[in-house]
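cron nightly-structures :: item 1 of 1
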Amino acid sequence: MGHLVTSGTFSLDGGTWDVDNNVWLVGDDREVLVIDAAHDADAIAAAVGDRRLTAIVSTHAHNDHIDAAAELAGRTGAPILLHPDDMVLWRMTYPDREPDRALADGDELTVAGTTLRVLHTPGHAPGAVCLYAPDLGTVFTGDTLFNGGPGATGRSYSDFGVIIDSIRDRLLTLPPDTVVRTGHGDTTTIGDEAPHLDEWIARGH
């Protein structure tokens, strides 16, 4: 498993913010899958190296998670995968290019013998997904669950009640020692986050 941090901006609802994004790579020395091609196609391509890139998986379509996806796909021929419920966000960045394949809850993606199970976890975005890799003991949560709580729900196409349901029903049911690899910031575990659910609900954001 590989990881790099790329820097750029996130824009929505008329505002723009500087952000650092986690880009995750799952595979071996022959083939690899990229989760969230953010900001810097050169850096991601360098991390892929001479391996075959099997897919570019987008956990959701906020621009900071997809803004290097088309360039990376163009260079490598790898398909971009996105849940169709996020097309409204996708088109803000790519009005003239469609994703190559649709993700659906329960889909299984396999790379280098590792299976990633797609969990549809709306709330931060309508088509947000997490990718659970039981063999690795990890879940890639995008911006659904962070070290410290749920992803933001204060902007368009997001919903606090929906993200809480997604986290409670889809993520906190995973084994407690599952490592949570997030879209921004530090990793955590399901067991570290689960006790705080009631606090998040009380906070209401």
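cron nightly-structures :: done
The chain has a mean pLDDT of 97.
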